[in-house]
Amino acid sequence: MMVDRRTVMAGAAALPLADGSSAPEGSLPQDRYERGLAQLRAISGSQGAAVVESLRDIAPDLGRYIVEFAYGDVFARPGLDVKTRELMTVAALTAMGTAAPQLKVHMRAALRVGASRQEIVETVMQMIPYAGFPAALNAIGTARDAFAAE
């Protein structure tokens, strides 16, 4: 995946993408979107892009925010690998207990970036003391669906 580097600001640091390439930090908004879209595709494959596309007719700005902020800014930050970021996302969505569709997307993304089924299940299990058994049971059901889809 290529990220347009023509609009990179002088002296900007490169941000690692999930596919091993890098994207510019401190770039203009279009680069931010392109960096986020590249990161989203590297992590979620076509599934993540389909979520963004499904918003085009009703809330295109929401899709843009997801791409630019969540993936272009947060997921592209240095300091944590994408597998760790995905397992953390699985933990947060499990604890919320109200985001089963998003949890399934991120469980599948976690598998895609190298997490094992056992790591995903253990992440859910770790949430029991904090989110409770109902949230964990719901997340395990979502994991079953996510694993079956792979």
Automatic annotation (TrEMBL):
| SUPFAM superfamilies from the UniProt entry | AhpD-like
**A Pfam family assignment:** CMD
Top-rank taxon of the source lineage equals: Bacteria
Recorded GO MF terms: peroxiredoxin activity
Q: Where is the Carboxymuconolactone decarboxylase-like domain?
A: 60-144
Q: Provide the protein name.
A: 4-carboxymuconolactone decarboxylase
Species of origin: Methylobacterium pseudosasicola
According to the entry, what is the taxonomic lineage of the organism? Bacteria, Pseudomonadati, Pseudomonadota, Alphaproteobacteria, Hyphomicrobiales
